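Fold these two proteins, one after the other.
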Amino acid sequence: MKKLALIFFSLLTFSSFAQNASVYKNKASILFDKGDFTKAATNLTLALKINPKDEKALGNRALCYEKLQKFDLALKDNLELLKYNQSGETLGSIGYDYLWLDKYEDARKYLNQAIELLPEKVVYRYNLALTYQYEENYDEAIIYFDEALVISPKHRPSLISKTRCLVKSKLFEKASAVVDSFFADHRFDVEMIILRGDLKKQKGKIEDALSDYNRALVILPEDTEVLNKALKCLFELGYHDEEIELRKREIELLLKSDWSKEAKALSFALLGFAQEAALYYEDALQSYNESLKLDPTGGEGRIYYIRSILKAKLKDFEGACIDLAKTKEIDPGKDEEYDQFFIDDAEFEEFVDYCMPNP
């Protein structure tokens, strides 16, 4: 009777543990669906304490870590899972983790194994192609993107990444053909719009490129890379008022970000260039001042020099002379070159007499 009771008690205990593990996994599933990957991983950890060999819990916790971009922890779980589950999915997940840890040879090893087991799984060929793209081996990357596209001709990530590789390889006509085909199918993707803009700009169609970048900015209003692409177009087109407004938007974003002071200083300086080109001299002067507050070196003296030119235009000869001297101090050995600009331009004759009495 005592022995029977012990067996009954052990069965109850096991049942309780199993039930608790299920509770944790169910909680994790709900939290995952809500996007709370940290708490989901915590609940799966509790489930794994009850059963360390729980394949579903291991795989799902690895997925949580991937969502949190903790690829080292995801890899650890997936390698543990591989001891119990040698499926193509497990191998593919390991390859994916190695990819994002920049261990491309290891990634290829596992992705190739995954492809052998699941040859129709497009994402493994896509990830394999990325290992070559990130190594800037664009020819090899294109081969595997094309393999992915044989399986799934409309696989958007492969089309976009292949186009990027073609652009990097300067195969602009082929890149344009991919982009044109994409939009001919009445499909939409902001990355493709940006790439189309890049290709138009490369062909010298600056207005058309600007149009695409502006469309992208409606969707990605805080994307500083796209902002810069649009700003360069505005500069080339001489649309200084539009450039000024967009540059102010960029500065607003940069000031709220953790970008370096040098990057913020450069943006203020570029705002000053646009304002000066639009003849808003006082505004330009203020922008140069803000730039120099952030970066007192003035970009190796260049901003001091540009400000000295503007001050000379505004007849602030003393200030211009001080800035010119600061330029020469920061960037020595070019005194004659810096002076010659003023000497050669009749607009600065009074300044030359003031600051360089014996040129």
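Now the second one:
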Amino acid sequence: MNAVVRSRALYLDDVSANILCQVWPRLRGRHLRRDYYGNFIVYLKRELTTFIRSPHPAKELDVQRTLESLKLLKQNMDKPLSQIVDVLKAEPNQLSELEASRLTEFLIRAWLSIELDIYSSSTWSITTSGGHEVVSLQRIIEGRFNNSVPREGAGSSGNLNRLTMKFLIDTFGWTVSWTSDLTEHLSVNSRTRVVTVYEHKICLLHHFEFDGHDVCPIPQGAIKEALDTLNLLFPPDDIPTQNYLENEGKSFHRLGACGRGVHYRDLSHYRYWNKGLAQLLRATEEEPLGFKQFVLDRRHQNFREVTTFWLAVVAIIFLTLGFGVISTVFAAKSYQVALMQYKLELAQVCSMPRANLSLPHYCA
């Protein structure tokens, strides 16, 4: 009985596992750990509930049929959005255009963790040298990432050895805003010291792991780099980072490096996320906040600054003590001189006639 209870606590229930298998069919037959998939299944169920209870719900469309529609979406990624909506309108769903449009948006969120507003004019086409061109959904998704890639050689470079999120939080007062939209990953607000971080590392792992078996339209380079940024900012083997993530209700450090064995610590490696990392790197060049600026961090990343400060403190202490000793010596010498002068003047007074009568206390 205890083993059954422990198993239920460790692994997802059958309903949750079935939902995930609809998104990634290659998960069938696996034991899906709750600490790996917990945050994502909560997000997925919330999105499902919101979609099914929306003001324009799809008639007769339950959870199972909703997720089964994902197969149709994957099979038609090479078509424009308008044609994909037409496919989802038809059998077996029998949906209105509005319902099919909302279904398409939901399926993209569930599968790719990307917010896509179908009724935005910029969603249907991309800008080319010849004007606006209606393209496939695959190219639209790719464009969401490729548009942020700097031209060859135009990206920033620099050493990222100091760059961990825990270091930024403890030393410079930064905070993390978690997101389920991959396109918002590493959006940085330097004024408020807030960085947005994509929280579903397990999704990136499966997009990377199932490459060649799925039709994921997100560029593999972007997926690999996103994994690398999470490994960089949240080192899986770093105890303070693990404690921070657990306190935040995130446990993706338990996934390890997700097959990305090398921790890439040069900014030039990153093309898709170069801008965000460059902004965070610049933040480490600012003055630390509070007493943390005077304490050596666990990785000795601020060794030079802390050493300089404490050497200056020690020098000031020694100078203060030195001046104190000198002042004490001079004060003692001054006292001795004053005492000798007093005795001399007293002797002169007492040598005068009848001084013993007029000053009996001093000239006895």
